[in-house]
Amino acid sequence: MTERRTLLHVFSTFNAGGPQIRFAQLANHFGSRYRHLIVAMDGATGAMERLKSGLDAAIVPVALHKGKTWHNVRSFRRALKDLRPDLLVTSNWGSIEWGMANIDHLVPHLHMEDGFGPEEADRQLPRRVWTRRLVLSRSLVVFPGLALMALARNGWKLPARACLYLPNGVDCARFGAPPGEELAAQYGIARDKPVIGTVGVLRAEKNLFRLLEAFAFVLQTRPAQLVIVGGGPLLEGLKEAAAARGLSADVVFTGASPVPERLLPLFSVFALSSDTEQMPLSILEAMAASRPIASTDVGDVRDMLAEENRPFLAPRDATCLSQSLLALLADPKKAEEIGRANRARAVSVYDQSRMFAAYRRLFDGDLTNTSKQS
Questions:
Q1: Are 335 and 329 in contact (CB under 8 A)?
Q2: Please, which residues have CB within 8 angstroms of residue 144's CB and are 6 or more apart in sequence?
Q3: Residue 91's closest CA among 130, 145, 40?
Q4: Which residues contact 187 (CB under 8 A, 6 or more apart)?
């Protein structure tokens, strides 16, 4: 290619989360190959710090008027005409108005669908289903999880040609790092008792209040520590909930960390307590870090894990999750074997090199669906 392609990426927020972290992986890997224009619908741009210096990546300010859909659609259409990107890349429901603005495919459209917020954890909202069907049927929609793609095919009635299964990838070499003993000292992470840990943005759909409740059950049986890595809107509420349960001495909140690969090896067990997920990057990172995992049975988590780890999935219930945690803590040798199996699966199936090759084709403009999934 003689000229760099301009990609316009639209996010509901550009604070760090799964879609934003994946974008940073891709942008950092591809370097100067593309020019990236980024729209953050809520104006938050915290994930910019994850991009390497020297990248041609810029935030584009575009006004959003809440509750004024057609006003926004007209405004976003003008922006598309002014910016003239080679590819529009939208992310999840929060960017759907950009798809509406591009309904006649003014520019080629790639939509990334990673899952739902808490309002759609248990049921699909009919208005959103119909909007997705109308707006996305002639675009190419990427799904990192097979369960989500099946929902789009059967519930949203998207045609097979519009749906591409493309699993997330992780830098398995990076997440083979040794434990950060200096971080253990910095945060007060225990080295003399089991540590249950989790990493993620502290949002409602992660249901970390369930994890606090499950941890309280664990403490009734054995000593342990809970480490929660991440920032987000529920941080203060979680601290208050831990204090109200008398757990403050046993729960560590580190805030967001740029080096989860150094923290994960400090965990005896990785925990996920979400109400809704599809293909969580945190699970892949924990697998690459050789951690055994206790998780709610959501999205594609069961298929992602090594077979040896699957018995430790739980319904969306704190008591059941605590039983999975206790079972892994009770047999450290078995937990270590499960962790090794998880890493082997991450390396063989989910290394990021496969993801990079697929996204290079898409970003270069080949939006034909070569997936055999239907």
A1: yes
A2: 114, 165, 166, 167, 168, 278, 279, 300
A3: 40
A4: 227, 252, 254
User: Is the CB of residue 327 less than 8 Å from the CB of residue 218?
Assistant: no
Pairing, β 57-59 against β 140-143: unpaired
Distances (CA, A) of 124 to 111, 204, 249: 19, 17, 40
pLDDT in tens, the chain (374 residues): 458 999 999 999 999 888 999 999 999 999 999 999 999 999 999 999 999 999 999 999 998 888 899 999 999 999 999 999 999 999 999 999 999 999 999 999 999 999 888 888 788 999 999 999 999 999 999 999 898 999 999 999 999 999 999 999 999 999 999 999 999 999 999 999 999 999 999 999 999 999 999 999 999 999 999 999 999 999 999 999 999 999 999 999 999 998 999 999 999 999 999 998 889 999 999 999 999 999 999 989 999 999 999 999 999 999 999 999 999 999 999 999 999 999 999 999 999 999 999 999 999 999 987 654 43
Three-class DSSP labels, 72-137: HHHHHHHHHHHHCCCEEEEECHHHHHHHHHCCCCCCCEEEECCCCCHHHCCCCCHHHHHHHHHHHC
CA 83/CA 91 separation, integer angstroms? 18
- The boundaries of the domain holding residue 314 are 174-349
Total residues belonging to the chain: 374
Consecutive H or E run containing 143: strand 140-143
Residue 50 lies in a domain: yes
- Which single residue is written with the structure tokens 């927020």? 13
Contact of 75 with 63, CB cutoff 8 Å: yes
Q: Which two tokens stand for residue 344?
A: 């082997």
What total number of domains does the chain contain?
A: 2
CATH code: domain of residue 148: 3.40.50.2000
Taking the C-alpha atoms of residue 186 and residue 319, their distance in angstroms, rounded to an integer, is 31
Are residue 250 and residue 103 in the same domain, yes or no?
A: no
**79: Cα separation from own chain's centroid:** 28
In whole angstroms, give the CA distance from residue 217 to residue 333. 23
pTM (2 d.p.): 0.81
